[in-house]
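Lab notebook, bench 4. Still working through the backlog of constructs that have no structural model yet. Next entry is a single chain of 151 residues. Request: give me the structure tokens for it.
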Amino acid sequence: MKKFFLALVAIVAFGFAANAQDAIGLRFGGGAGYGAELSFQKGLGSNRLELDLGLSSANDSYYNLSGIYQWVNNLSGDLNWYVGVGANVGYCANHGLGLAAAGQIGLEYNFSNIPFQVSLDARPQFEFLLPNDCWRHGFGWGACLSIRYKL
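Model written out:
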């Protein structure tokens, strides 16, 4: 069931990505046991929406989906900084759903001669709806490194 769910979500994400001039890749880290997340950015004018789907590296029965609206600002040339707000929905097998309010701040570099983007960010979040006996709780944050292919 877990493999089917992840395959279905990946197919849908790649389907959206194929029709957009945006970016898709991986987001590594995150603190509190996160592993890699499939990351998709959808441009909305000068701002964007970032969607990240992850599986915990500390507990393989915990999935999360984050949606963050980001305001993007140029620092110099290909270097940008961004800040955003959003939410995180998590599912812990046999324990239920969790919900968190999240923020994000980061730096990104968009290579001008190749279609790649590299970013470093922090995403603090406060989980206010928690599944019973799941390993996540309260306030948490983590630093992440992301590598994305610009479509």
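Notes after review: Residues 17 and 39 are 11 Å apart (CA to CA). The chain has a mean pLDDT of 81. Flag for follow-up if needed.
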